Amino acid sequence: MLRKGRNRQFVELEDEAAGDMPADPTPFTDPLAYASLEELRSLVQETFERMSDKQGLVVRLHDMEGHTIQEIARIIGCPVGTVKSRLFYGRQEFKSLFSAVSNGGFKASSASIN
After folding, report:
1. pTM of the entire predicted model
2. How far, CA to CA in Å, does 12 sit from each of 3, 16, 23?
3. Closest Cα partner for 48 from 89, 76, 78, 90?
4. Separation of CA 5 from chain center
5. What is the C-alpha separation between 44 and 38, in angstroms, rounded?
6. What topology does CATH give the domain 54-114?
7. Domain limits, the chain
8. For the segment 64-77, what is each residue's pLDDT rounded down to a tens digit?
9. d(Cα 113, Cα 73) in Å, to the nearest integer?
10. Residues near 73 by beta carbon (within 8 Å), at least 6 away in sequence
11. Which 8-state DSSP code applies to residue 63?
């Protein structure tokens, strides 16, 4: 591993201009990007609120907070296989609900299902 790293060139990420830039867009630096980011955050939050508790928790811990499957199993006190299952089905549920929420709201999509 050390020998492979010798041939790689590294670029210094610390640049004078980069230090002055905010990490996220603000209403002052880029109003359109800020509004888009806030809308996305709102849609993601609403989607998590509509998800089942068990699956929503696992998806949030894994995909949003970066915990491993094993860490989540310890946190919620269930087997690793259960966490994997909840993550799989939770992602499917998130995708479906996010699509419904972002395409005009949840009520319209649930009315067509029933």
Report:
1. 0.64
2. 21, 11, 18
3. 90
4. 32
5. 10
6. Arc Repressor Mutant, subunit A (1.10.10)
7. 54-114
8. 999 999 999 999 99
9. 34
10. 79, 80, 82, 83
11. I
Q: Give 76-103 pLDDT, tens digit per residue.
A: 999 999 999 999 999 999 999 999 988 8
Query: 26 φ, ψ to 5°?
Result: -115, 165
Which amino acid belongs to residue 55?
A: Q
Residue type, 11: V
Q: Is 97 exposed, middle or buried (0-12, 13-18, 19+ CB in 10 A)?
A: buried
* Tokens of residue 35, six digits: 């509004």
Q: Please, how many CA atoms are within 13 Å of residue 42, restricted to the half-sphere of its CB?
A: 9
